[in-house]
Amino acid sequence: MKTDDLVSLLSNSGGAADPMMVSSRYWQAMVISTGGALILLLIGYGLRPDLSVMLGTPLFWARLAFPAVIAVGALMVVARLARPGVSVGRSWTVMALPVIVVIVAAVLTLGLAPASERLSMVLGATWRSCPFNIAFLSIPGFIANFWLLRNMAPTRLRVAGAAAGLLAGSAATIVYCLHCPEMEVAFWAVWYIAGMLIPAVIGAVLAPRLLRW
């Protein structure tokens, strides 16, 4: 068969792409990310005992909004990087903005606090375990996001892998907030970001092998 005949056959026989298919895959990945993280949290760590009280405090919701906005930005970036030739545009700023806000707030709160309290504000009581707990909770989302990308056509593999890992990490951080006792902004600015970066770095490293097509 000649090349022109093959192209003609493929173009005539191909049906219209389902516009809901891609959207459905994104939703499936997000459900697996958050649902899987929640299951791991309940099995491994449990909810903080005063969660019902914390739900009534603005600071708790501010802490929850921090990874949630990052997750929205990461999802926007993943959605664009999953398609070849699509520019990321300003989606990066959606991820960067909450990080900048939290870092600035952390610097301000540390500057206003007595020098003797600053270290404890950064370290809290769980700094040794927090980033690794977040990375552990991100495993279902990491798998789901890479499954999503493998069914798409990313070309910037390392960047796409990093964004997929960050999306998994931010979704895991949202869930981890239901357990974590730390309420200092300085703590979030260091250890929450570190926890989200672990799957992002792993995603960037593994992407050329896992996403090659």
Automatic annotation (TrEMBL):
Protein name: Putative transmembrane protein
Top-level division of the source organism's lineage: Bacteria
Xref: Pfam families: NrsF (PF06532)
TM regions (residue ranges): 26-47, 59-82, 94-113, 125-147, 159-179, 185-207
Organism: Advenella mimigardefordensis (strain DSM 17166 / LMG 22922 / DPN7)
Keyword Transmembrane helix included in the entry's annotation: yes
Keywords from the UniProt entry: Membrane, Transmembrane, Transmembrane helix
InterPro entries: NrsF
